[in-house]
Amino acid sequence: MNRADWLLLPGERGNPATRLDARRPGGAAWTPGNEARPLVHGAAYFAELLSGISAMEAGDLLLFTDWRGDADERLDGPGTEIGAVLCRAAARGVVVKGLLWRSHLDGLHFSQEENLALGVELARAGGECLLDMRVRPGGSHHQKLVVLRHRGRPERDVAYVGGIDLCHNRNDDATHSGDRQSLPLASAYGPHPPWHDVQLALRGPVVGDVEAVFRERWEDPAPLSRSPFNRMRERLAHEDVTADPLPPQTPDPPPCGTHTVQLLRTYPNRLLFGYPFAPDGERSIARGYLKALERARVLIYLEDQYLWSPRVVAGFARALRRHPGLRMISVVPTVPEQDGWLTLPMNLIGRINALADLRRAGGGRVAVYGLENRAGTPVYVHAKVCVIDDTWFSVGSDNVNLRSWTHDSELSCAVLDESGDPRPPKDPGGLGDGARVLPRELRLELMREHLDRDPPAAELCDPMAAFDAFAESAARLDAWYADGRPGPRPPGRLRRYVPEDLSRLRGLLARPLHRALVDPDGRPMGMRLRKGF
């Protein structure tokens, strides 16, 4: 496998200011010799994170960034609230440093008060958590990472990157019964919204790369906020607004696996106080996707919270047009996150337009599904996963929408497995020399859960058979509902995604406020970035 065929070269990142591409001999833009392990569902991630933090000792280093943090979110039962776990680590002498997005007003369903509370609680225990508003107007810090470094025990070092925040709603498992500590979503999701998500556990030298991402943001000398209101509040509340120095970065952990990982990011071109590590922004997530999509020949498997924006799906559509044997499966939320006259049209119009472009390019080779649990409640798909030809995959904080590709801070991992094809060459389910163990096993794990059964491996290894298995499972469940739900519910959690009729939304979209302020990608009109990917 030629890594340069799938991963970005240093010049292709488009950001020579970052230290990421200067960390490896010869300026390699990726890091080989790692173990990358997907953790499907918040319950699996939270249990492992709790175990790892609880074992940390004085002098160890714990770093985290997040979009939202709820101090009272339990990782694994009473007494394991994330705020308490972090505070106990700080009290033991672990160096604990965090960056949370300051957020807009909570009246807009964001997270300022919760993030502030976690920061105050951690500061009292001797840690430090800053509220970071160094974003473009209307943007957010959306990166979700945790780094655990162990003084004198580098073999224990681990980093976590993906879509799972340290907050309410996320602690769900394969049953999708929902987190008992819930935040309200659209009414269709019920009092405890079922939640589907993925995080990646990383061991090996790439842990040093993830730490470098944190250090670039932590060492940014710009003020945490340009808002006069926020700065006055900081002074009145005596908030910590200055990042204390971090201890020097230790050598990277030794190689421990067959996985090559490349960190991809989005940073906007900030108009004032630009990022010193990305003065013109960074679009490597978008560029990484576009390069990998150029090699797609057989199957694109995507799980995404949004799948908005014709501009972003253009790369997928181009691949479908060029290669008539290419298929695409997308798993998305059936129902938008929030009810209401502002958020509902943004979600539906953005997705419907994007799916129309994909279907024009691929016709029946494009299949889109929603999920539900066995009780029939929709599952909110928050995962950000893409697997291409069982060779390249990505897990991160980024969604397939313009916001994640241009405007918010995001962090993703593109992964190649160099251990070879898991299927014998004579097996018709194999993809030949291109297919690799880890991308395939991730796809199979997700597909088996959604099918709610464990079919023979060959059935799902063969991309065409997997495509058909999803279609047949969704058709059976849809027919059961259409027939009035006679007899036992058929196995499977897949429902064919049917876009809603746009006619009932035209009145909303005609309102002056919508026309003036909102585009289908969910950002204020004036905040669109003109720069390409």
Architecture blueprint of SSEs:
Elements: H1 3-6, H2 10-13, E1 31-40, H3 42-54, E2 61-66, H4 82-91, E3 95-101, H5 112-124, E4 128-132, E5 145-149, E6 158-162, E7 195-196, E8 198-203, H6 206-218, H7 228-237, E9 259-267, E10 282-283, H8 284-293, E11 299-303, H9 310-322, E12 327-331, H10 343-362, E13 366-371, E14 380-381, E15 385-388, E16 392-396, H11 402-407, E17 410-417, H12 437-451, H13 457-461, H14 463-482, E18 494-496, H15 506-509, H16 512-517
Parallel strand pairs: 2-3, 3-4, 7-14, 11-12, 12-13
Antiparallel strand pairs: 1-8, 1-9, 2-5, 5-6, 6-8, 9-10, 9-17, 11-15, 13-18, 15-16, 16-17
Helix pairs in contact: 4-5, 8-9, 9-10
Structure in words:
With 533 residues, this protein is of the alpha+beta class. About 7% of the residues have low confidence. Helix 9 packs parallel to helix 10. It starts with a helix and ends in a 16-residue tail after the last helix. It is built from 16 helices and 18 strands. The strands form two sheets. The chain has a 16-stranded mixed beta sheet that branches.
